[in-house]
Amino acid sequence: MRPLDPRLLTHATAARSFLALGAVLGLAQTVTIVAFCWLLSSVISSAIDGQPLGRLAQQVGALAAVVIVRSVLIWLVEVTATRGAARVKSQLRTLVLSRVGELGPDWLAGRRSVRVTTVISTGLDALDDYFGRYLPQLLLTVIATPILVAAMFWLDVPSGVTVIIALPLIPIFMMLIGWRTQAVQQRSWESLQTLSTAFLDLVGGLSTLKIFGRERRQFDRVRRVTDDYRVETMRVLRVTFLSGFALELAASLSVALVAVSVGLRMLDGQLSLAVGLFVLLLAPEAFAPLRQVGAQFHAAADGVAAAEEVFQILEEQPAAQQRDASASLVEESEVRELSRNRGVGLVPRVEGSDGGGSSRNPLQSVRGFETVAARPLSQRKGASSRVEVRGSSRNRGVGSFPRVEGSEVRGSSRNRGVGVFPRVEGSDGGGSSRNPRALLRVEQLTVTRGTHRVLDRLNAEFAPGQITVVSGPSGCGKSTLIGALLGFTPYGGRITLAGHEITPTDDRAWLSWAGQRPGLMTGTVAENVALGDPADEFDSALVAWSLEAAAAGELDGSEMLGVNGAGLSGGQAQRVAVARALYRSQRHDCAVVALDEPSSALDADAEQKLIHGLRLLADQGRTVIVVSHRPALLDAADTELRMGERAYV
Amino acid sequence: MSRTELPRTELPRADDSGADVPGAVDLRPVLRLAQPGFRRFLPGLLAGVLSAGFGVGLLAVSAWLITRAAEMPPILYLSMAVVGVRAFALGRAVFRYLERLASHDAAFRQLTDVRLGLLARMMPLAPAGLTRTRRGDLLTRLVRDVDDLQDLPLRVVQPVVTAVIVAVLAVAGVALLHPMAAACLAAGLVLAALLGTGSASILAAVSERRLAPLRGELTEEVLETVQNLDVLSAFGALGGRLDRVRDADARLRRATLGRSLGMGVQAAIVALFAGLVTVATLVIGIPALDTGATAQSWTLTGPALAVIVLVPMAVFEVFAVMPAALGAWRQVRSSARRVATAVPTGVPAEIPSEYSAERDTDESQPAQGFETGPTSPVPNDAPASGGRARGSAARPLSQRKGEGFSRVEGAEVRGSSRNRGVEVFPRVEGADEEGSSRNRGVEVFPRVEGSDEGGSSRNPTGHVLELADVAVRWPGAGSDAVSGVSLRLAPGDRVHLAGPSGSGKSTVAMALVRFLEYTGSYRLDGIEAREWPHDRLRKVVGLCQQDPWLFDESIRQNLLFARDTATDDDLIEVLERVGLGEWLAERGGLEARVGERGALVSGGQAQRIALARALLADFEILVIDEPTANVDRETGERLIRDILTAAADDARAVLLISHTPVPSDLVTARVTLPARG
Fold first, then answer.
1. Per-residue pLDDT for A647 more than 70?
2. Rounded to a whole number, what is the distance in Å from the CA of B109 to chain A's nearest CA?
3. What is the pLDDT of residues B268-297, one digit of tens each?
4. Are the C-beta atoms of B672 and B498 separated by less than 8 Å?
5. Nearest to B108 among A185, A193, A233 (CB)
């Protein structure tokens, strides 16, 4: 562990002013220490020499003043530390939050969000002790110790020599013992983690153990494991505590050596009592900061570890940069393939839905162009990325439904029930530049996770005015496809909307989405539905309509939700999330609406209402993409995109 | 320097303020559990007192040595002091080392007791009484709190007791030289302790009151932002949200800065009194110096003056651990409070405790309208004994059951009145009066009545489970989570328990394995379930939970504890039965690990492993709670078909809980719970 990470000073400017102020305070503390020791020893020696109290009053008064100043300084050091820590934490928090926002959801998905949250919120509180207890002592070690040693040298060379020999022994001993024990300590630390995890495992699984009648045996197991651990740990601690022992021993022995040598030399009259006492009082003070640094090492290590995690996030590469690298790799091999072998595993246009046969290019020809060695999985995947057209009788062609024009009746939409669209005011003017009737096209879409290709050269088209249901077994990449549309997941290949390529840095104004997880937040239902709008400027009629269309009409828009949408049942939360997507689709006139498992927690009636709502969106000319394997949704779909064929994944 | 605390799994602490409400929770049992007994505690304490005492002694003797040497006596007079200085210096370090070893050893030993003690408290409560820990992070928090309890002996009791003992000894020692100086020292110590802890407590309380809500607010903001990063980005709301977090952060920062002046007051007070006592001792001591001129009752030699002036400095240095100990105490106390809240003492009435059979028959249910069962809780031949021999002898029973259910198919009463919402069995006429349903519970089942007389329901070839008008309530709830449930499970029966989410399906499952107490009648083999010892009942009635817990072990270990005599072939067979054969091969066999809380397997896979476990345990009556919640439709249907067909073959009884439809050819009966308002 480095005593002071320079990155702390780079990232948190508040740390610099804290250090500067701390140095001044440290210097002042050193002065009071010297003054206190000098005044005390001179008063004692003068009194023993026979000076009455009256003559010493001035010195005693000065001593009292020094005592008061010293207390004030101690208080100031803590105040400074608190303020410094608060400022540094705030700075780091702001930095890391913005950074997490830049890195995006895909980066976050690879981590435990709880961990990241902790780092940002309370994890940084470990810096309190780092600033409050460790850094001031570190400063004092750097400032006070040399001054005190110099003072001892100046007055009594042998004492100075004793201290100057003993002082370096402390870090040397600590390092020697530290090296020896580091590996053992690490092992012990890990076994400690394991032990705690095992207990956690046990407590969490209690009901399971009870079902199988195994709960009684656990007492013995816990006792045995914990005792084994204790024996092992104590063996380690015996060595570990040696470093503390060395520190204590060096400090107290050098005080003893100073005392004895000063005492013996005073017998000869070589030293005055005042100097002798002064040196005796200074000796432990010279060791005190170093001892404190050692004692606060643990607190410091926690703080440094917390800061370390923040720095790691700050130095993380954003996904967009990674994407470029991986995408170009993929494209290189894909482009050749594409040029020779157009439409492998692709059923093109839904409109011209006679595509079935032509897409079945022989697999052999694909294999022939594979540049990478064996990819058995991807072959299967690629082959199975086909589109089945179902229920084509419902496929009435795009735009055959008359749009409800000009029904700008606000507030009354609820009475009319689903089916009347309160058109968003201003969206005609502002949003009309984006053509809502745009074909969404996915070409050679490839997503790689580690070495596994989740999506392998997927080609698909999603036609405007239609409901396309994406189905397939779990793990076949349905949600990954949505993640790629959102631009969260780095991918290779192209996604085009009305012929224009969508870039991951796009503002996604064309897309409205509801994920598997509702992702609701503190606030009213209406505020959740109108997410993205300023808090008091949302369109309440549209909110009511969205809730109705998402089969959540029974919810009161003004109902207050707790953290993460607490207060709603799972099914209700899901419907609110869908309503949020519907709201956005109207508010921003989104060309594409993508819903990931919107009805998994809905009963049949609610599902029918939802389907009705989706149909209305499609009839508005939007592209509606629904990931689902619910029969009712499949029946309602104009097109089904079946992905992957592996069962039991 | 050593990292001796147990690991701190960092978690957001937004729940701190919530779980920390001061209330009627009695912390003493938890704290008593955490504090080692006197004999275990004594070695560490002794070493601690010696080490701290030697520290004071070192300064006292050194000061005496130097001031005495200034008088230039023969060296002989100093030799004792020289030896003493060296001995104290050495002893201080040695005893400090021993203290740390002894006190850590004691704390670790105590940790075993703490864990076992809490486990014993949790055992009867799990799972229904431990709902406060149902969320994964809260459970982690509880375990961490338990670990943190060892700070009580290490960082609170040990330093405080040591400091007090050393202070008393030092005051006594000074009193031998000069009583006034001793009184002054004692007063200084007491004042410093009182003012220091008092001011620190007040400031900490105020700051907690002001800062804790802001801190909680910030944590919640951050948590929501991070967890919903995808939603916020997709809806273009991230920028505004980050501004909100920054505002929350700024509020906390301003409040912290505003309160910062209170920090360090305690340390400053201790330092101030240390210095003032030194000054005061000088003022008292100097006039008392033996100059021959005055004739006071107490005179001091020069070395004695040095001693009484310098000793307070050393004593206050020992005393300086007080602020840290006080801080540790606050943390221990809130940990103890969370532990005490999460793991209540005593078992609530809604959870059956192991020996409830006697208690219930004795006092709590004197007015039972039906027979209270045999005096010995369970007849020896009843449970599990006839498990394997399900053959032709089972026929007549299942045939009778077939008749019984002939009316059931059409009996899906949905949303009718609460009392009789679920009505599978033909009700006896006239059993409709309010309050009487319980007494008549038996009448509803004439066959059971008869079987008690004839003993035929204790048919060694299979177990029969019957619920009549059962209601179940969760601990602390004001009303029943489910009521009026009646159903019957005989060998070969496959009953689908349906109903919308929240209708109490899983609650019924909890009652069936006696995790929750019931009212009404729940009979196994004609004997009230209350009369059955839990472990014997659970040998017959098994539950495959909706949210199964996988232990952080290999797949083999996760299966073996269901039946430890199973061979690898058995395990592989049962995994194939639940459709995990291919997956097992991919994972590299039974040694593959499932990860912490099953992190390495998907939700659907975890459910199927749990199902395999239940099949392996060979429960004759198996309750399966939503086995297809996390798998896709085709897989789910195949899975249900496999389970139910296998159950039919084995003449096993299955209660399948599912909110999605189950093909009617697979089940023998369906019970639908009404939605609850």
1. no
2. 7
3. 999 999 999 999 999 999 988 866 555 556
4. yes
5. A233
Residues B357-550+601-672: name the CATH superfamily: P-loop containing nucleotide triphosphate hydrolases (3.40.50.300)
For residue A583, name the pLDDT band (cuts at 50, 70, 90): very high
Exposure pattern of B526-565 as b/e (b: 16+ CB <10 Å)?
bbbbbbbebeebbbbbbbbbbebbbbbbebeebbbbbbee
pLDDT in tens, A171-209: 777 677 666 655 665 666 566 666 666 777 787 788 888
For B184-232, the pLDDT digits (tens) are 999 999 999 999 888 888 888 887 788 888 888 888 888 888 888 889 9
Res. A505: pLDDT tops 60: yes
What is the pLDDT confidence band of residue A125, given thresholds at 50, 70 and 90? confident
Beta-bridged to residue B671, according to DSSP, are B497
ipTM associated with this complex: 0.74
Nearest CB to A267 within list B75, B502, B617? B75
Question: A509 and chain B: CB distance < 8 Å anywhere?
Answer: yes
> Which chain A residues have a beta carbon less than 8 Å from that of B546?
none
The closest of B477, B547, B473 to B511, measured between CA atoms, is: B473
Distance from CA of A242 to the nearest CA of B (A): 7
CB spacing of B275 vs A36 below 8 angstroms? yes
Q: How far apart are CA A455 and CA A382, in angstroms?
A: 8
CA distance B113 to chain A (A): 8
- Residue B265 distance to chain A (closest CA, Å): 6
Euclidean distance between CA atoms B378 and B357, whole angstroms: 10
Query: pLDDT tens for residues B361-394?
Result: 333 333 333 333 333 333 333 333 333 333 333 3
Q: Say which residue, A212 or A369, is predicted with more confidence.
A: A212
Please report the residues numbered 311 through 340 in chain B whose beta carbons come closer than 8 angstroms to any beta carbon of chain A. none
**What pLDDT, on the 0 to 100 scale, is given for residue B587?**
78
Q: Which of B237, B253, B286 sits opposite A532 (nearest CB)?
A: B237
Rounded Cα distance between B507 and B519, Å, is 13
| CATH number at A520-589 | 3.40.50.300
The whole-angstrom separation of Cα B431 and Cα A455 is 62
Distance CA A235, CA A269 (A): 50
- For chain A, the structural domain boundaries read 1-154+295-316, 157-270, 520-589
Residues of A in contact with B305 (CB under 8 A): 44, 47-48
Note whether B222 contacts A: Cβ–Cβ < 8 A: yes
* Whether B187 contacts chain A with CB within 8 A: no
What is the rounded distance in angstroms from the CA atom of residue A593 to the CA atom of residue A626?
Answer: 8
Domain positions in chain B are 25-217+263-342, 357-550+601-672
Which of 601-640 (A) contact B at CB < 8 A?
A: 601, 603, 629-631
Give the architecture (CATH level 2) of B25-217+263-342: Up-down Bundle (1.20)
Structure tokens, B297: 């009752």
Render pLDDT for B89-114 as a digit per residue (tens, 0 to 9).
Answer: 999 999 999 999 999 999 888 988 88
Nearest to B575 by CA among B547, B548, B610: B610
| Predicted local distance difference test score (pLDDT) of residue B108 | 86
Question: Cβ separation of A74 and B267 shorter than 8 Å?
Answer: yes
Compute the distance between CA of residue A391 and CA of residue A634 in angstroms, rounded to an integer: 9
Average pLDDT over residues A120-134: 81
Residues of B in contact with A121 (CB under 8 A): 12-14, 215, 218-219, 222-223
Q: Which residues pair with A641 in a beta bridge?
A: A387, A470
d(CA A620, CA A342): 32
Question: Which among A72, A123, A601 is the nearest to B10, CB-wise?
Answer: A123
Distance CA B44, CA B41 (A): 6
B425 vs chain A: nearest CA distance in angstroms? Answer: 27
